[in-house]
Write a structure and sequence with these properties.
Blueprint: H1 21-37, H2 44-68, H3 81-88, H4 92-104, E1 108-111, E2 115-118, E3 127-131, H5 140-143, E4 144-155, H6 158-164, E5 171-181, E6 187-196, H7 213-221, E7 225-236, H8 242-245, E8 252-262, E9 267-276, E10 280-284, H9 291-294
Parallel strand pairs: 3-10
Antiparallel strand pairs: 1-2, 4-5, 5-6, 6-9, 7-8, 8-9
Helix pairs in contact: 1-2, 2-4, 3-4
């Protein structure tokens, strides 16, 4: 009887304590200011420009969340510009910029002297990743193009070694970039990948590669990835990634860590993926295995 090989997939889900709506709004309204205060490299005018940009995004996101929760049902009016200015402690220009984007996206309409009215709740364009088998684990790669932002060879210091579960001094090919779905201009996620130095030669094919990185390693080096250990965590977008993912600092994310191993348990690749929660959902179908199917056939 031919042997069949299956990859092992494990998932660990950690769900953070959900704040109340008012707590979340208050925390979100001030998180931008906190992040800007920690960036001394920015000049005064640059700080003000970034402050305005990020704050309008913060207000826009908060209002979209409220519309989707039906805090403001279709046909109702949202708070006035003056009320939003007081709530978020921002300028009239910042409020109007957020409202302009909401209007352009079809959420609200405006009429002079009548304020802003909720018109519709546009369908979310999030990316849904449904997994029914191990083979489907990376099929989403074909639908979400990787835009590579950079690559370099790195030597693992103590911090990176702990992160990759390897010995300090180990060399890795580090690559990073964003994935963009077919029907959205917004990134669905940020990916940071570490490839064992023995397979670093794949960097020459990365610009033309449109499949999973582990598959490129298999093709170029004759290795066989036998196991993928996957861990899912509830997290927040790291501050340094908020701009590249086009989300406000402190936004919620789904973090997916994957470790790719050969049959001899050699780690060939480790990847860290951060997905904004409103742009990516992950579905796994787990089926029970009967004892007859799980057992080894005997003569």
């Amino acid at each position: 009887m031919p042997s069949s090989k299956t990859a092992k997939v494990t998932a660990t889900l950690k769900v953070p304590v959900r704040p109340t709506a008012s707590e979340a709004r208050t925390r979100n309204a001030h998180s931008v200011l906190d992040s800007l205060s920690k960036r001394p490299e920015l000049g005064g005018s640059e700080v003000e420009q970034e402050r305005s940009l990020l704050l309008y995004m913060q207000i826009q996101r908060a209002l979209i969340d409220r519309i989707r929760r039906k805090d403001y049902p279709v046909g109702s009016r949202i708070p006035t510009e003056s009320e939003l200015r007081r709530e978020f402690h921002v300028s009239r220009h910042t409020v109007r910029e957020a409202l302009r984007h909401l209007r352009d996206e079809g959420y609200i309409s405006s009429r002079q002297g009548s304020g802003y009215t909720v018109e519709s709740v546009p369908e979310q364009q999030g990316f849904v990743h449904s997994v029914n088998s191990v083979d489907e684990l990376f099929q989403y790669v074909a639908k979400a193009k990787l835009e590579l932002l950079g690559m370099e060879m790195v030597k693992a210091d103590a911090t990176l070694a702990a992160r990759l579960n390897c010995s300090p001094g180990r060399r890795w090919l580090r690559m990073w970039g964003v994935r963009v779905g077919q029907y959205s201009a917004l990134p669905i996620g940020y990916m940071e990948v570490f490839v064992h130095e023995a397979y670093a030669g794949i960097h020459r094919q990365m610009e033309d590669n449109d499949g999973p990185i582990y598959a490129l390693i298999e093709r170029e080096y004759g290795e066989r990835v036998d196991e993928v250990v996957q861990t899912l965590r509830g997290a927040t977008i790291p501050p340094e990634l908020s701009e590249v993912l086009k989300v406000p600092p402190g936004s919620a994310s789904l973090e997916i860590e994957r470790v790719f191993k050969t049959r001899l348990r050699k780690v060939v690749e480790v990847s860290f993926n951060y997905h904004p929660v409103d742009r990516f959902s992950y579905t796994m179908v787990l089926r029970s295995v009967t004892r007859e199917n799980a057992g080894t056939e005997r003569d």
